[in-house]
Design a protein that fits this description.
Number of helices: 3
Number of strands: 13
Structural class: alpha+beta
Distance between the termini: 114 Å
Oligomer: single chain
CATH architecture of the largest domain: 3-layer Sandwich
Length: 190
């Protein structure tokens, strides 16, 4: 008897709880082929879109951003190419370096202001570097004397190669406030 009871419940119509419209749904109602294929297609399209989205994220992860920078060391001519007492701006744009030749030595200064990273300009008439952003001023040797710059410009490693050409290596920096300007790699004696 209990088996008949459960069979009767399966075959009995279900009435919606919505009071505004009462519709009977029976188990015999079937979804037609057109609607079935439509929903299967939508489901597969959504699945493929999700897999493709995650696949593109995985591919993006496998190919990280690469920043191509110029070489950090370069040849800067010979000592004779630089006039005593002058600042060479030949490598300012391409490498961010000023080559300064004094009576007894030659050194490479960074063109990055120590205040906020702007590029100062060499003003030969006033014999100083002047930052256009906030007015920091540096003497020819790179020591700061005016404006908000907290410290002098940095020097780069500079050496003579076997053939007599100057090699500037920007990966090694020397800071005056740390006493590194006396390091023999921060200048060339001429």
């Amino acid at each position: 008897m209990s088996e008949n009871n459960s069979e009767e419940k399966k075959d009995s119509p279900v009435i919606s709880s919505d009071n505004s419209s009462t519709k009977e749904i029976t188990i015999d109602d079937k979804i037609d082929r057109r609607h079935f294929i439509k929903w299967i297609t939508v489901g597969w399209a959504a699945f493929i879109a999700i897999v493709a989205g995650y696949g593109s994220l995985v591919l993006r992860y496998l190919f990280p951003n690469v920043l191509f920078e110029p070489k950090q060391s370069f040849r800067a001519g010979t000592v004779d190419d630089y006039v005593i007492g002058e600042v060479s701006e030949v490598y300012k744009e391409k490498h961010g370096v000023w080559i300064v030749r004094e009576q007894d030595k030659l050194y490479a200064l960074s063109t990055i202001c120590t205040h906020l990273g702007c590029t100062p300009n060499w003003q030969a008439a006033e014999a100083k570097y002047k930052c256009p952003c906030h007015g920091s001023g540096f003497y020819k040797n790179g020591i700061n004397f005016e404006g908000p710059a907290p410290r002098p410009l940095e020097r780069f490693k500079i050496t003579l190669s076997d053939d007599g050409s100057i090699v500037v290596d920007k990966t090694k920096k020397f800071q005056q406030e740390k006493g590194e300007w006396s390091d023999p790699e921060s200048f060339i004696l001429v």
